[in-house]
Design brief:
single chain, alpha+beta, four-stranded antiparallel β-sheet, three-stranded mixed β-sheet, 3 helices, 9 strands, about 30% helix
Length: about 220
Amino acid sequence: MKMTLTSQFKKGFTLIELLVVIAILATLAGISYPVIMGQINSANETAARKTCLDIVQGVTQFHQDYGSLPYQTDMCEVGEDNNYQVAISTTDGNDAGLVAILTNREEGDDRLNTNRQTYLRSDEQDKKADGLYVDPNSGSLGLYDPWGNPYYIIMCDDEEIGTIDPFTGRKIRNKICLVYSLGADGAGKPSSTPAAAAEASEEETDALEDNIYSWKKR
């Protein structure tokens, strides 16, 4: 007698089983997302702080080599109450030539970095984030933090006078350069004047170690 073998089909997932799996995956994603974002933010903060320190070191070394600060005098913003304070933002073409000077990218015969040394190394990026950005149309340079904001630099060529901390309004002697960024939320803007900064709340004046601001938290 000939026997016929019947095919056995495996049972698929039921709707309830699929919903349970999806719920488990969603829960795991919800747990891991804050951890991943925290690691990314921590890495960005570390990168911003390092760049702040690199800028300070570059400005300081340039000052030691030439006896002057690395900016074009006709392109800088000087504080109204303190004419010796120079404030620069590293946005495209508005940095008083500082980025070009420190990265040895000056053009023309009136270069300040006459020895053509590189005081600040920065790889070119294809967008305004985490490094040097070169505008494809104008060719102007800009230096941006990991969140896409420019770095802000305050300089004073007299160490005895000291550079004014824009968040507290206090003078920091033996420092010719302060650097900070606005941080992840872009809220790290200091008070408009040293006097206003001196009256800021303790939370507003919370700063990082030394005199380097790589982000601000409010």
